[in-house]
Write a sequence for this structure.
């Protein structure tokens, strides 16, 4: 009898542990609400800006989406150079994704259009080379030159040359908000059109640890946090943070939201579809249940709609960066060694930027980082936190997830660089598209940064467009459910199927 009592106590204790773990890793056991709850509050003002959701919906879906999707299909934007072999700098993790959908297809550098021009861009002149014998002008070649009177010692020691190179590297690093690894020996070209972003099956503790580390260790948070098991900041607590901290958190949340929408809209519905016309890699498409699982208010402490709003906020932020750097971007060559393709790309860039300039309610970055020493310290922390997040992308165990995580993180980092580095702030600055880009030192953005910036914005645009599809699917389900109820019993009054009530959230992977 005593043994049985111990067994009962042990079972109860085990169940308690499982429930506690489930609080961190699983969704509610109850099914998601079948209503349109995800979109009921997705209207009106975004907060921290003068724009609203409905304005962005129309502007994106009608004007931006078709343009940006066409643009990123151009050769210049299809190929992204990235190092996927870096070790995780924060923890030892051997949990690599073994599914075939996690793997990516790289391509040889010779197959990249305009590769010669791409490599020439990266042959940056070292500061030390400026003072070498070959680089200096030989004044004694002039017929009226007096060597004794005109002598100038132009030599610089090797140690001094090394120090000058360090100065340049330091100055450049102060502008960057994320790490760029396209110059690494292990960096390879990837054709993004052959490696679309979609659900690969990568999940579990490894994926959870990525986002937990980002939110709990690298995002600004209110000083009081009574919900340690819930890694996100509740929208009601955002008012306890300053503007800069809120912008950082909402940008990361918007990026996370966008990635989750991509996974829900390109979900593996079945390994193989029956029939001869079936695609060899299975059937992919929107998964409404998965979308509700990630965003329905009943599953997310009521935060799902706020996460969706953060997507719109990030869209606004990156669009402002494109507008701010627009005159510079209009002067880029977009070289692919095909004059016709290059001209089409430049025209498409100018056309899309012209539409972006016309947007009435751009994000106002000038309100941030004002206030002397304290603001400078906050800006430094802002940049350091995002640098850490870009390094965390090397800890992702799925190569395809890592590819798109690094690209979208670099795209956001490039946008932050444009908005907050100060290089685009000077009014009338001749570098804003007015200087001919004849020398590499005049380049403010490298090719990989431009590719990442436009592709990241294209992903946000695609996410907002996919929300329209999910909204239509949910509305269709509701109409069908009403018809089924009336058909079964027309006299029964239709009631809300989804009951309110708290339940345990899970880590959002």
């Amino acid at each position: 009898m005593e043994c049985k009592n111990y067994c009962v106590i042990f079972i109860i204790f085990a169940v308690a542990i499982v429930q506690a773990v489930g609080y961190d890793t699983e969704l509610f056991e109850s099914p998601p609400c079948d209503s349109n709850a995800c979109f009921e509050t997705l209207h009106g003002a975004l907060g921290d800006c003068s724009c609203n959701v409905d304005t962005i919906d129309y502007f994106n879906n009608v004007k931006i989406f078709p343009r940006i999707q066409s643009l990123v299909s151009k050769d210049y934007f299809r190929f992204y150079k990235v190092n996927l072999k870096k070790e995780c700098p924060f923890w030892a993790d051997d949990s690599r994704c073994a599914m075939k959908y996690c793997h990516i297809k790289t391509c040889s550098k010779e197959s990249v259009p305009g590769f010669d021009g791409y490599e020439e861009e990266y042959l940056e002149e070292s500061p030390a080379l400026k003072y070498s014998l070959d680089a200096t002008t030989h004044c004694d070649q002039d017929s009226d030159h007096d060597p004794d009177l005109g002598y100038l010692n132009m030599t610089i020691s090797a140690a001094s040359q090394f120090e000058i190179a360090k100065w340049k590297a330091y100055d450049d690093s102060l502008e960057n908000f994320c790490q760029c690894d396209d110059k690494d020996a292990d960096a390879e070209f990837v054709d993004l059109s052959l490696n679309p972003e979609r659900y690969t099956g990568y999940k579990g503790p490894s994926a959870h640890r990525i986002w937990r580390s980002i939110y709990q260790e690298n995002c600004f948070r209110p000083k009081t946090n009574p919900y340690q098991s819930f890694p996100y900041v509740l929208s009601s607590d955002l008012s306890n943070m300053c503007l800069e901290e809120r912008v950082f958190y909402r940008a990361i949340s918007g990026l996370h939201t966008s990635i989750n929408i991509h996974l829900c809209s390109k979900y593996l519905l079945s390994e193989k579809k029956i029939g001869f016309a079936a695609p060899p890699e299975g059937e992919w498409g929107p998964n409404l249940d998965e979308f509700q699982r990630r965003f329905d208010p009943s599953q997310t402490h009521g935060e799902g709609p706020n996460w969706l709003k953060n997507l719109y906020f990030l869209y606004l932020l990156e669009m402002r960066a494109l507008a701010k750097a627009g005159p510079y971007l209009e002067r880029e060559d977009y070289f692919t060694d095909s004059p016709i393709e290059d001209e089409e790309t430049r025209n498409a860039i100018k056309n899309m930027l012209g539409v972006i300039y016309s947007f009435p309610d751009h994000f106002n970055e000038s309100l941030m980082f004002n206030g002397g020493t304290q603001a400078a310290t906050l800006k430094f922390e802002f940049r350091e936190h995002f640098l850490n997040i870009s390094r965390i992308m090397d800890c992702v165990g799925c190569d395809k997830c890592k590819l798109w995580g690094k690209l979208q993180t670099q795209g956001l980092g490039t946008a932050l660089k444009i908005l907050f580095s100060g290089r685009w702030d000077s009014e009338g600055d001749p570098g804003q598209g007015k200087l001919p880009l004849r020398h590499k030192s005049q380049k403010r953005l490298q090719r990989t940064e431009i590719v990442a910036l436009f592709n990241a914005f294209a992903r946000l645009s695609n996410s907002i467009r996919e929300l329209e599809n999910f909204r239509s699917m949910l509305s269709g389900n509701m109409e069908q459910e009403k018809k089924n109820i009336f058909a079964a019993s027309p006299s029964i009054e239709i009631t809300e199927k989804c009951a309110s009530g708290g339940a345990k959230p899970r880590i959002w992977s």
